[in-house]
Amino acid sequence: MAIQKRRVFYRGLVLGLILLLLLLAGCGRQEQATPTGKQDSYPLTLKDSFNREVKIDKAPQRIVSLAPSNTEILFALGLGDKIVGVTKYCDYPAEAKTKEQVGGFSDPSVEKIVALKPDLVVATGMHEKVVKQLEELKIPVLAVNPKQFDEVYATIELLGKATGTQKKAAEVVAQMKARVEDIAKKVSGKGQPKVFYEVWDEPLMTAGPGTFINDLIVRAGGTNIAADAQKAYPEYSLELLLQRDPEIIIFPSGKNTPEKIMSRPGWQNISAVKNKRVVMVDGNLVSRPGPRLVDGLELFAKAIHPEAFK
Length: 310
Description:
Rossmann fold; 12 helices
């Protein structure tokens, strides 16, 4: 009975975490944020992912970020000294951990945000209620909601536009595109082995279509065995896993290790386990839609095609 209760608890916890992932990845279909103002002058007007027109009167000097990915982008644009507030999950770069915290992903405190007197708040697709509250208080807030690599590029360019760092944004995007192209060249023509990405183990869950994980697997030269799933983060049975027989298993850092996964009952006949191709990656690098997503892509490519990186 205790085991059953524990399984129910963990199942609820996991589903909550997956919901956050879905919201942060922008599972709702929203307009891509695009600039609509003049390139080099303030005031300017920008259109965000909620299809709102946001007026920014001057270059922001006090910025609050409501997601780790936004924080990473802002630091990459050289705006560290202008960031006055972040979430408790914003942990990269190290300087982000020294900033005032305004809450978590889904529960940022509007009161704490207002107390920091921001002239720009950068939100995500999951912050619709917060965005409306800040809008009523006449605080400029941009919601960004990238769902794939090209939209990550557009988000960086948008934030560069909003903050007067267009040149730096263009440099960051150019560097990302160059690395993505280099990785694509290295894995080109080397086959497309079957890959299983483990999001969680109890219940067993993976990443399906419309996720950054699926995009990373494809760009890294692999085939996602869950690409035909009916949802973004489906549960996956051991029976189906054995049937699909992945050649590589990738999972995020956390409680598991390759050894633990390979020793699971019933997994010994999976090709990835037989050939010891079970690889752990930094989960932040493959789930945060920011500049380091390219690092995540490289990790996937090295796991799927190690021969291309010798």
